[in-house]
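TASK: fixed-backbone design
INPUT:
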């Protein structure tokens, strides 16, 4: 025991040994910090796995986000397929054929319906039908992807367009039928899931189409049901391409926007009604044109600087009379 105490005291009194102890403490603290970081990372990864769940057939989801649901005046959000189960209110299967049950009304100014979807790896899709009830009113629906392919494993937007033809006005209908299936032996099947069950969705879109104006109306003009531009205040013409100023612009001024004139050199004012003369005719006359003065009695010259010596020998006024 005495040897132990002696060594301890000797070590404590040695400055170099004190530094070694401090270094060991710092190394120990770094080790604890590293273990803490690793533990936190493991907890985060494990929590993520628990929240996402296993990649099974029940992970197939297709839905309308809150913005799209508001466009269609629906509750938000709306799941067309949730955990592999199609909405009973959307479509039904009759003899192997998907029949639409739901018809959505798409506002006139909305061209596309955005649908979000995702599925475990191994799911494929195929658009079985993209049709229009009347091609004179509405073209066939369009999609921003191939007609057949694999469903993305991460949330992605499927954009389906319902373009009006613009040839006439009326109510058009578009039909979408989408088949969904899995490739054999590619994913784990959840217990109790019927692998023979038909998967897919079918729905219709109703849209109020209007005849288009060709070329389109300018300056925010509105094309009516007959293909005629209804112009906003201050514009006129077949395409609302002409600008109107009241009063009209004077002295060769150009109406730029409603009520605003662009004046030529030598004129100003709201409607270019005021002529401009250097020196303002020196206070001895009225400016009646660009650098042209109508001088008072007794004065003459371009800028009214010449004093008349006798009556009637100089400038004429605009009426042709001498003064």
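OUTPUT:
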């Amino acid at each position: 025991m005495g040897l132990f105490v002696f060594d301890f005291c000797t070590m404590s009194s040695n400055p170099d040994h004190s530094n070694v102890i401090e270094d060991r403490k710092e190394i120990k603290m770094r080790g604890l910090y590293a273990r803490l970081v690793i533990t936190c990372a493991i907890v985060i990864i494990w929590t993520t796995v628990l929240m996402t769940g296993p990649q099974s057939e029940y992970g197939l989801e297709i839905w309308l986000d809150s913005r799209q649901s508001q466009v269609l005046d629906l509750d938000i959000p709306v799941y067309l397929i949730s955990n592999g189960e199609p909405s009973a209110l959307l479509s039904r299967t009759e003899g192997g054929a998907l029949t639409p049950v739901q018809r959505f009304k798409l506002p006139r100014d909305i061209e596309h319906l955005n649908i979000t979807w995702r599925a475990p790896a191994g799911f494929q899709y195929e658009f079985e039908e993209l049709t229009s009830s009347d091609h004179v009113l509405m073209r066939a629906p369009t999609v921003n992807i191939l007609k057949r392919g694999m469903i993305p494993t991460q949330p992605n937007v499927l954009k389906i367009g319902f373009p009006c033809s613009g040839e006439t006005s009326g109510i058009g209908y578009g039909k979408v039928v989408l088949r969904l299936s899995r490739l054999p032996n590619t994913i784990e099947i959840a217990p109790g899931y019927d692998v023979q069950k038909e998967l897919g969705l079918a729905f219709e879109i109703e849209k109020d189409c209007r005849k288009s104006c060709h070329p389109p109306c300018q300056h925010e003009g509105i094309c009516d049901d007959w293909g005629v531009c209804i112009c906003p205040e201050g514009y006129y013409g077949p395409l609302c391409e002409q600008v109107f100023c009241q009063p009209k612009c004077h002295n060769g001024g150009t109406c730029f926007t409603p009520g605003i004139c662009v004046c030529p050199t030598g004129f100003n004012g709201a409607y270019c009604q005021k002529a401009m003369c250097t020196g303002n005719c020196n206070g001895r006359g009225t400016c009646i044109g660009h650098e042209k003065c109508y001088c008072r009695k007794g004065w003459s010259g371009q800028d009214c600087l010449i004093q008349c010596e006798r009556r009637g020998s100089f400038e004429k006024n605009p009426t042709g009379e001498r003064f």
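COMMENT: Residues 1-15, 45-58, 189-196, 319-323 have pLDDT under 50 and may be disordered.
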